[in-house]
Design a protein that fits this description.
This protein has 397 residues and is α/β, with parallel strands linked by helices. It has 15 helices and 14 strands. The strands form 2 sheets. It has an 8-stranded mixed β-sheet with strand order 3-4-2-1-5-6-7-8, with helices on both faces. Strands 11-10-9-12-13-14 form a 6-stranded parallel β-sheet, with helices on both faces. The longest helix has 18 residues. It starts with 5 loop residues before the first strand and ends with a helix. The mean pLDDT is 93.
Length: 397
C-alpha cells in the first residue's frame, strides 16, 4: 500500500526475556496491535537474557505474530547491554523504515541508534518508561546526572517526540534537572493491555482458594510483580502490624530481586503474622486471571511506577486496588472511574494506609467489582492504544 507505515522498534531485550520486566510485554503488545492495523513493524534487539537462544536464529529476521524480529548477539553477558553486530546492521534496517521508536534510555545502545537514524533523516521517538522519574534519577544520581547531560539529554532534545505513559510521567519531564523545556513534544500513550483474557470467574476464585487452603470469604490482600526497593514493600510491615486484630491473609507473588520481599516476610513472622502470608513465585500470564479473581484487594505501595499494568488487569478481574500516589495509572483511574468503587490512591504514609484498610476490612464483603469492562478496553486495550499511536506516527511523517 502506498501509504503503509513502516516502523522500526529498537530495544535491548525482547521476548522471551521476561525477567527484564514490563517493557518487554508492553512494547510487544503495541507492536502486535500496530501490525494488526496493517502497519509494517520491524523489531531489532539482542539476545540479552537468552543464553540458550539458537545460533541459527541470531541475525536472521524471524516472523513473530505479524512482526519481523531480528536478534543480534550481546557483546558481553551481564551489565550494560551492547551489541556491535546490531549497530553494524542498523543502516539496512533504517533504510527500509520511516521512523525509529526507541525504548533504550540509560542503555549504551540508545545514543548510537539515534545518531545513525538522524544521519539518514529518520525521525526518532523515545519511550521514557519511567527512566526520567525522580526515583530513577535518585539512584546513583552522582553519576547519572552528568551522563544524562552529556549523552542522553542531547539525544532527547533532538528527538521528534517523547512517549510517556501517564500524565504524571509527562509532568516529570518538566523537572528543571532535566533541562528539556517544552521540546520535543510529549505523546501520552498508556501501556496497551490485552484485557480479553481477564474477567471475574467465581469458579476460578473458589478453585484457587481451595488449592491454597484459603477460606472462601476471608479477605485476601495481593501484591503481584517483581519485588524491589522501588515497589515500596517496606510500607506494608507497619500497616499489617496495625491490622493484626482483624482477619485477613496476604499473597506475595513474584521474584525477590533485592531482598525486599524477604524483609517483609521476616517482619510478618516477627509480629506473629507469618501464618497469614502465602508466598508464591512468578506466575504465568495464563494464571493471572484466577489469581486476581481470588484476591479481594491489590496493593501497590510503589515509590514510583510510570504506569502500573497490574492494577488494570486486577480491576478487569473484579479485584479493587489500593495504589500509592507514585503509581502513574492512579490519577487516570480516578478520572475514568469516578462513579465506580474501584479502590483508592493514597500517599505513601503507613498511618493513612492502616486507617483506610481497617475501614475497608470492617466493611468487607466478598463481592467482585462490577466494572463495565468496556471502559477499560476503550482506554487501555491494545487496539485503542495502537490506533492512537498510528495517528501520532502519521503526524511526524
Amino acid at each position: 500500500m502506498a501509504n503503509q507505515l513502516c516502523i522500526l522498534h529498537a530495544l535491548p531485550v525482547w521476548a522471551p526475556a521476561w525477567q527484564y520486566g514490563g517493557p518487554v510485554r508492553s512494547v510487544g503488545r503495541l507492536c502486535g496491535a500496530l501490525a494488526d492495523r496493517g502497519i509494517k513493524v520491524e523489531v531489532i534487539t539482542t539476545t540479552a537474557g537468552l543464553p540458550d537462544w539458537p545460533q541459527t536464529e541470531i541475525g536472521v529476521p524471524l516472523e513473530r505474530d505479524g512482526i519481523t524480529v531480528t536478534y543480534y548477539p550481546e557483546d558481553q553477558p551481564g551489565g550494560a547491554i551492547r551489541s556491535q553486530a546490531l549497530l553494524a546492521a542498523l543502516p539496512k534496517h533504517l533504510a527500509r523504515n520511516q521512523l525509529l521508536h526507541l525504548s533504550a534510555l540509560w542503555q549504551p545502545l540508545g545514543p548510537p541508534l539515534q545518531r545513525a537514524a538522524q544521519r539518514l533523516g529518520v525521525p526518532v521517538v523515545h519511550s521514557l518508561r519511567g527512566a526520567l522519574g525522580p526515583y530513577s534519577l535518585s539512584r546513583g544520581w552522582w553519576k547519572k546526572l552528568p551522563y544524562y547531560w552529556l549523552v542522553e539529554r542531547p539525544c532527547l532534545k533532538r528527538a521528534a517526540a517523547l512517549h510517556t505513559t501517564s500524565g504524571r510521567e509527562q509532568r516529570e519531564c518538566n523537572n528543571p534537572l532535566l533541562g528539556l523545556g517544552a521540546l520535543p513534544p510529549r505523546w501520552l500513550l498508556p501501556n496497551p493491555l490485552e484485557l480479553a483474557a481477564f474477567g471475574f470467574d467465581p469458579q476460578q476464585r473458589l478453585a484457587w482458594r481451595t488449592t491454597h487452603q484459603l477460606k472462601a470469604k476471608e479477605p485476601l490482600f495481593l501484591v503481584c510483580g517483581r519485588h524491589h526497593h522501588k515497589k515500596g514493600l517496606d510500607l506494608l510491615a507497619p500497616v499489617f502490624k496495625a491490622l493484626a486484630h482483624l482477619p485477613w491473609h496476604f499473597a506475595l507473588v513474584g521474584p525477590d530481586e533485592d531482598g525486599s520481599a524477604a524483609a517483609l516476610e521476616q517482619s510478618l513472622r516477627c509480629h506473629g503474622l507469618g501464618e497469614r502470608l502465602l508466598r508464591l513465585p512468578l506466575q504465568q500470564a495464563t494464571e493471572l486471571p484466577a489469581l486476581f479473581a481470588a484476591a479481594d484487594l491489590l496493593l501497590m505501595p510503589s515509590r514510583h511506577e510510570n504506569f502500573g499494568n497490574v492494577a488494570l488487569e486486577a480491576l478487569a478481574c473484579g479485584c479493587p486496588v489500593l495504589l500509592s500516589d507514585g503509581v502513574g495509572a492512579g490519577e487516570e483511574l480516578e478520572r475514568l472511574l469516578t462513579t465506580q468503587p474501584w479502590g483508592a490512591v493514597l500517599p505513601r504514609r503507613s498511618h493513612l494506609w492502616s486507617q483506610w484498610l481497617a475501614a475497608w476490612l470492617l466493611n468487607f464483603a466478598a463481592k467482585p467489582l462490577r466494572l463495565d469492562p468496556q471502559l477499560l478496553v476503550d482506554h487501555y486495550g491494545s487496539s485503542a492504544v495502537a490506533a492512537n499511536c498510528e495517528a501520532l506516527y502519521r503526524t511526524l511523517l
